[in-house]
Amino acid sequence: MSLPPPLPASLPAGGEDHRLHPWSWLFVLLMQLRHYFLPLVALLVFGQRGDRDPMWAQLIPLSAIAALVLVSVLQYLSYRYRIGSDAITVRSGLLARNRREIPFARIHNVEVRQNPLHRLFGVAELRLESAGGVRPEAEMRVLKLDQALALERLVRQRGQAPQAADVVAAPSLTGADAEQVLLRLSSWDVVRMGLLSNRGWALAIAAFGVLFQTVPRPVMDAAIQRGGQEAFGYASHLHPGVAGAFLLLAAALLLGWLALRALSVVLTLLRYHGFTLSEQDRRLTVSAGLLSRTRSSVARRRIQAWTLRESTLHRWFGLRQLRIDSAAGGPSRDEDRALRELAPLATQERCTQLVQHLLPQLQWPPARWQSIPQRGWWRLCLGALVLVPLLAAAAYWRWGSWGLVVLAWLPVALLVAHRQMARMGWYLDDHYVAVRGGWWKRWWRWAELDKVQGLRLQRSPLDKLLGTSSLQLDTAGAHGDVALTLHYLPRAQAQHVMEQLAAALARRKLRW
Question: What is the tens place of the pLDDT at every residue in 76-86?
């Protein structure tokens, strides 16, 4: 029987309970203050109104802060962890004491996170996650940076349990202790990603939504009216004429578009600066971030499904995104916490090379996709076929003949639906199943058959009318935004594929 790897020198001795970093209580306090910031401000501002004594009004929020400090210190004093030979034991809780055993082999994702304050103190936050959990199994706030990195390496070493089939099918190309960089994004790559993304638009829309929800409606209306009057008055003093007015409007729109693109670049740099994808001991690690640095890792065997994406802009520049779904976490988890992006932006050839390297037993891209019968392609725009005439009738009643312009959307919707159905396809062999779809924004999604845990044959009333069925495949722990579904197959073909897959799954062992 082989002995587990020894503990690194930076980690405390095994078999004993240990506390977190002495400054751990401060970071817990800051997290709680962030959550209770608005209530505390409301107490401080509105508590001084009326006939209350100003001193007592100020003591209320101060007492609340003192209580949060006390709770943070007690949490630090009550938190213990122990590193065993095959598991990490965590004890926590103030009144109700909790003990959690986290086997190394069950840890699917390890994340080391540093924000600017962490980097100032030389500490890091460590999160350990297992399959299917919405919350991490353990959140260690905070450890010394060298201890967090050493614990991450220890989990990688002691959590290795690759199956023999994996070792035979995909032998390691590097040494056991060597780290191989698979992808590194330069600063120009990150800037280009920001220029091609819509992060600035999303943030601007969210900011406007927050303003309209928090600022009183009369104040917002008055601000918009006053701003419009000032802009109109400034433009009228220039006497630009009709052509000049259009030029001013175009310049304003261009400046707004450039500002949003610049905002997208800044947001992308904050998140993806220094993005590096590496592999060591059959475990993938992604590190990225400018101010807040995040390092997240997952074992290759924990990857449940794969997704390739490309928008129209990406396609023009020959770029794609490669994403994964792992067994750790759930659909409600924070996007930043999960290792989901292996290649947030890379060339088509580089994405294909990554897939071929990480899944050498699979044939990617497939030699031939199975097409979907085009009968009933209009079903993809059924909502537009129903809603657009109703909207056009309402617009005609309100604005007359000009309202019928809404009907111009119908041919566009029909064209998009026809092109989407023409591009849909699926592929199945002895190792994996894949589907593709989209036209304006294209995607490919696939999973190994060893990861499929359930089959479901679906028929809607429209399917019964057209004689079609859809076959949905459930992968263990994956929560992707694109379903692994074979849509709109002829009923007999869908039944045959389901029986074929059921027979194949019966002979295979589900691998997490």
Answer: 888 989 888 88
